[in-house]
Each structure stands twice: as C-alpha cells, then as structure tokens.
Structures
1.
Amino acid sequence: MTVHGVAGRTVLVAGATSTVGLAAMGALVRAGAHVVAAGRSAARLEPLAALGARVEEIDLTDEGAVTALAAQLHADGIAVDGVLHLVGGWRGGGGIAGQTEADYRLLEASFTALRHVSRAFDADLAGSPAGRLAIVSSTVVDRPLAGGASYAAVKAASEAWVRAAAQGYAKQARDAGEPLRAAAVIFRVTSLAGLEEAVADAFVGLWEAGAPANGAIVAIGEGTA
Ligand SMILES: NC(=O)c1ccc[n+]([C@@H]2O[C@H](COP(=O)([O-])OP(=O)(O)OC[C@H]3O[C@@H](n4cnc5c(N)ncnc54)[C@H](OP(=O)(O)O)[C@@H]3O)[C@@H](O)[C@H]2O)c1
C-alpha cells in the first residue's frame, strides 16, 4: 500500500464533535493534514473550527445532505483522502426482550451514516493516492451480550460493511492491474474513555510505514483482542 504520511492530505471526520473527534482533529493537524469536520451541532463544531478544520453542520443520516456535502467539496476542488467515521451512540436493555425497537433505530443511525458517507466518498477514497476509511468498533462484536444485542448487531453490520469496502479496494486495484493504494480498517475498543488519543494516533498511523493491511481489525487498548 502507498504510505508516506498524512501531511497534505484531506480527511473527513464524520461525527467529529465528541472527545475522540477532537483528539483526531489535533493529531491530524499536528501531522499536517487538512480536516473537514462534520457534525450536527454547530456549537460543538466551534472548537474544531478553532483548530483549523473546515466545519460542516450536517445530519449524516440524511443521504441527500451527505451527497450534497460531497458535491460541494468537489465543487470547491476538494477530494478526500481519508474518512474517519465516529457517529456512534449507546443503548442497552435487559436481555434480548429488553432490546427495544426505539433503541435499535437510534443505534442504527451510526450504520446508516456510515453507508451514506462511504458511498458518497467512495470514488474519492478509491481514486486517492492513499485513501483510508476507518471506523471505531467494539470488542462486543466477538463477545456479544444479550443486554447489548442491538449495539453488537449494529457494530457487526458496520464491520461487515467496512470489510466489504476493503474487498472493493482490492478488487478495483486487481482489475486495473495497479498496486493497492486504499485501505479500510476497523479499530476495536472495549471502552473509548482514555483511549481517544490512541485512536487518533492509530488513524494517523494508517498513512505511515507498517500501517495495518487493508481489511485489518486492530484492537486498541488493554483487554482488547
Ligand atoms: N464510547 C465508547 O466507549 C465506545 C466503545 C466502542 C466503540 N465506540 C465507538 O467509537 C465511536 C466514537 O464514540 P463516541 O462515544 O465519541 O461516539 P458518539 O459521541 O456517539 O458520536 C460521535 C459524534 O457523532 C455525532 N453525531 C451523532 N449523530 C450524528 C449525525 N446523525 N450526524 C452528524 N453527527 C452525529 C455526535 O454529536 P452530537 O450527538 O452531539 O450531535 C458525536 O459528537 C463511535 O462509533 C462509537 O460507537 C465507542
């Protein structure tokens, strides 16, 4: 895969307004990247703008809005080299019977946003000299609990989607007789608290020598496997 660092590349952080988004912004800016920070809260986007991001107030579950964002960036001469998808959410309940549809719909928004964003920017990532797509998933995919079944199911679906994107990158490169330049990677944590900088650094590391392979699942933090 192509490496040589993230400096000069443009990265979209989708759902950028939580602690890990701020950490990713910091790490990317320190490494010399340009950042487009997307979130649905104008107030929570302000600190990212202060750090130098182009901020976009958007509901990433709105397919039309995501398509329009991609079109606007392209019209402005911007193609993204990386997408870090952070839209999340958590709801649990008592066992399988306690997994409500309302909670599932809320959790599923994360996967819906992932589908919209990865579709809208697929051509950018595949066409980049070093395209990178990453999500933050959970160790519960391997060890699902009844009380978090909906969450585990959404994360499992998101992982399958990202691994499919990885297969797509590999196939495109193979069909074109070109070297593989893009990578889709899954980070897994048990709890994100205290690991925000580690996740941010791992994402920046996707452009560096020794980066995880296309399709890799990378555990971050103690107790992950
Ligand atoms: N927290 C953990 O312990 C943990 C463990 C394993 C995996 N993860 C995963 O790590 C990732 C980041 O975690 P997190 O706790 O930082 O996630 P999060 O707070 O649930 O979501 C990240 C950001 O996305 C924004 N967002 C939510 N819905 C959006 C939408 N429709 N359009 C645009 N922006 C939206 C949120 O902003 P607002 O809601 O303020 O608008 C939030 O700032 C998530 O994918 C999560 O599932 C987290």
Note: The pocket of NAP is lined by residues 15, 17-18, 20-21, 39-41, 44, 59-61, 86-89, 109-110, 113, 136, 138, 189, 191-193 (CB under 6 Å).
2.
Amino acid sequence: MREGHQGTGPGAITPDGCAVELYARLPAGAEPDIVASAVPEGARILELGSGVGRMTHPLLERGYRVTAVDESAEMLEHVRGARTLCSPIEDLDLDERFDAVMLASFLIHTGDVGVRRGLLRTCVRHVAEDGCVLIQREGADYHTNLPRERVDPSGFTVRILSADPVGDGVNSVRAEYEFPDAVWTQTFRARPLTRAQFEEALGEAGLAVDRYLTDDGTWVRAVPVRR
Ligand SMILES: C[S@@+](CC[C@H](N)C(=O)[O-])C[C@H]1O[C@@H](n2cnc3c(N)ncnc32)[C@H](O)[C@@H]1O
C-alpha cells in the first residue's frame, strides 16, 4: 500500500486504496462522451490507470482502439476487448505513439511531485506529435465544502468526508461509497492545484492546454509543445 493510502470494504484493494469490486460497479456516466468530443473516431488511445475498464469498455464500443494500463492485475482482470498492460504508469516505455493518452481519475493530483512528473513524462513519451493528452483534474471546490455527498441515480451515495492537511500542500482525503449491500472507503493523499499551478505542471512536462472540455474545468485536452 502506498504511504497515506488505504481502502476498506469487500474484495481486493489496490496500492492507492481503490476497491476493485467498487470500480466494477461504478457507472461510466458522461466521461466517454467527453473523451469522444476531443478524440477523432477510430483513434488509438492509451488509457493510464484504467482500473476495471469502466471507461475502456464504452470507448471500445465507440470504435476506439484502447491499450489499458494499470499497476493492479486484479483491476485489469476485468478488462475485456482491450490490450492490457500491468505496470506502474511512471515506468511505461512502449516505443509506440498514440493518438490520445488519457490520465483520468485525478491522478495528476498525486501528493508526490516526483510521481506527478513521472506520470506526465509517460504521457509525453507516448503521444503522437499531432495527438493529445486528456487529463481529468479536480474541480475548484474539491477540498472544501466538506463533508458533501452526491446520490447517484444508479443507487449509491458517494461522500467526500474530509480533507486534512498533512504538510507540504498535500491533503489526506477520505471518501466513502455507500451501496445498499456494501460500503467502501478510500483514504488517499491529494495535492490541490489551482488552474495556474496545473498549467505550470503541464508546461514543465512539455504540454500546453489546448482547451478545457467541461464548464467546470475538470477535463482538459492538452497537446505537446513543439520544440
Ligand atoms: C481511482 S481508480 C480509477 C480507475 C479508472 N480510471 C476509472 O475511472 O474507473 C485509479 C486506478 O489507477 C491505478 N493507479 C493509480 N496510480 C497508478 C500508477 N502510478 N501506476 C499505475 N496504475 C496506477 C489504480 O490501480 C486504480 O486502478
């Protein structure tokens, strides 16, 4: 388990505290549509931190060719129809370029700046010159207004219970997912990033924002900076 990360509830838990059975239940929601709004039909997508394939499967149905990467073999066992690679994202070096690289699920908010640089280097290493990197970042109020909850129409409630500073600009965040028959919790470290700090991190990696894909600024299409 990664330092500061923890998960409780039924089934296997990944090193970052995610529950495999929980992610197998979560709906994909609007996210595949957001990706489709930014990536041409039939494109080759490298999905980093794919989990069980919650987004992979709807993307395959839309005709994208997806390579799904995750460090958890237990997560990847659920992925169907995509090429899967079990690896830490930071270590991935495929000698291949993709039309789109996805770094979703707020992974860019890792508390460890070295890991964040490694994640972004992997994105840059694998994106085609005319391709894009799609990043999902936290909304502006993610660490405030707590506790808060959202009742999902599919029948579960997600709560962000607390976000407590643990030093160096990093918070320990506690989340809870309550289903009628099971409850999962995840505790993880996250570094809030303002839009300016986010764009600076991209710039340092050789990426620039092409456009924000959603009104809340959480989904971003970035492109490699020509050198
Ligand atoms: C919050 S889950 C989200 C999964 C998927 N993106 C989704 O939206 O359903 C994060 C996933 O990223 C994986 N992960 C986190 N950090 C990773 C890293 N550094 N290298 C590889 N996989 C990582 C975890 O194992 C987990 O499956």
Note: The helical segments are 20-25, 31-36, 56-61, 73-76, 113-126, 195-205.
3.
Amino acid sequence: MHHAPLVLAISVTLLSTSAMGDDATYHAERGLAAATQWPGYASLCDLDSHMRNVNVPRTSSQRQRSAGDEHHHHGSRQTSDVDPLPPMQVFDNLFFLGNHSVSAWLYGDEDGYLLIDGLNTDEEAREDILGGMDTLGLDPSAIEAVLVTHGHGDHYGGADYIAEKLDVEVLMTQADWDLVETLGEHPRFGPPPSPGRVVSDGETLQVGDYHLDVHVTPGHTPGTISPIFTVYDHGEPHVAMLWGGTGFNFGPDVDTFEAYAASAAKMRRLSTAADVDVFISNHAKRDGSIEMMEALAQRQPEAPHPFVRENDGEALFTVLEQCALAQAARFRTDLSR
Ligand SMILES: [Zn+2]
C-alpha cells in the first residue's frame, strides 16, 4: 500500500478547507483517517476537487489522483489507464478480467457465469474479457448474462459486444437504463447496450450453483448496483461486496452526495449482517486490487488470502460515507455564501 501520497493528500486538504466550514473539514478528517486502510478512495475527501464543474482547469496532480471513471466527463484518458492487467483467478468462483482503467469480474464456474461489467469498448471486451478467459482456460459460452453495475460507458462500453456474441442479456437497473438512453454515443466508449433486462433492489440472481444479491446504491448514478455474493477460497466460503460506483463525477449536487452517503451507510448495515469480508469495486486503482492481486500471486500455501479483510469493512464504508458528507457540506456552504 502507498502511504506516502496519502499523507500528502491529508495535509493539502487541511490547509485549504478553512473557508469551507467546519462540517466539511470534520467529515473529511474522519474519511481520510479511515482511508489509511483504503488509500485508493482517499481522493474522494479532496475538498479542492471537482473544479471542472465551474470550468476551472485542474492541475496535473489533481488529475493523477482521479481514478479511471472520473475522466469520462472531461477530456481524453491517459494511455496508462488502458495498460493491461493479467487476468486472474482470485477465488474458486471469481475471476478478474480487466485493466488499469476498469475492472470486469466473472462470477461462477463452468456451470454458469455472470459477467459483471463490460469494460470501456468492444476491443477491451474482446481482449481483456474473452482473451482473459482464454488465458485462464475458461469457456465464454458458460456466461449466462452481463450485469452492468451502472450506466456509464466504462462499464457498459463492451457489454453489448459480449451479449451479442454469446446471445445473452444485459442486466441493469431501470434508473440506469433510463440514464443510458440519455447518454448516446461517446468516442471513448462502445455504444450503450440495447434495452435488456431490468434488475431491482433486493433481487437475487441465480448463476449456476451460486447466487448474487442485488443491492441498489444511488449516488454515483441513480441506479448503481452493489452486489453481495459468496466466494470460495479452496472451498472455504467468504462473502464479497462489490461497490458499484465510486467517483463523485455528478456535479456539485448536495442531494446526490447525501444519497451517496446514505447508500454507503446502507451497505455498511447489509455487509455487517451478511458477514462480508471481501470488499472490491470495478476500478482496480480504487479498491487495491492491483496490490492485492500482486500479493495473491506471491501467496504461500496456508497464508491468508489478501482479498479477505474482515476488519477493514467499517473503514471502507466510513471513507465512502464521510467523504460524501464532506462534499455535501462543502457545496452546501458554497451555495449559502
Ligand atoms: Zn461511473
């Protein structure tokens, strides 16, 4: 884990928040303290960010702190974002098929897979998803559906390519099917998927012998999905939660920040109830997947699984909740001035 840049981010934030009110600083301090366990999410508490909303150019250091999906409303992506990551079997029934920009996760086994997300483009779907499955010796014809966590191009861009090639459906919430309809074509992403199946909060998706619980977490988009599902480590069960939408790229909207914070609180409750001990997302730079997969590749027999972090869930939801509350307070203060 990279602790040094985090220390820098904390000091930068504290120096610059005096004019924003105590509330924003209070929440940002709590979020940043919890982010020591999850440094990839620390930039959510940056109270200088999102200046693009008022058309002020951002500095290069601010750009570097953004994760992949925050780029799609303002300019071209850095070439380093599409550097490949090796495909990997992370659990008995969970496979990473993504790149440095965005993750796709394959859940299940040869009796049935659910593909979670479709990456940026048809090309990435072909190379990273189908190519990755080929590298791992997995059969794409066992994919039963493509679940798109939310209606942004970096997750749906290659979804239709997979769905058409394998003759399966794309699944998304109604709210995000509606969102996608308003977005249209974008040069960085594959086309929005043609209308598919609607999934709803509380629904359980059966995938071969496994199942996945759909939880809707409004905030990043109106219908973001953050599923909970059981994974196995050499037969030993663990419970995973995938945070389906991370970046604050929806503008300075206080209500949306508050909805985001409420969704984080909801997933804290559900994750505690379900004994979640694996916390992933759909961006490897955010959730620590890059470092955790490196550790997994070096794992000794009998050593703990690097993705199993039963003591870090509270910290994750605190970062997500408190940083959203910090931004809500910041923009509430801005509006009242
Ligand atoms: Zn997004």
Note: The chain has one domain: 76-311.
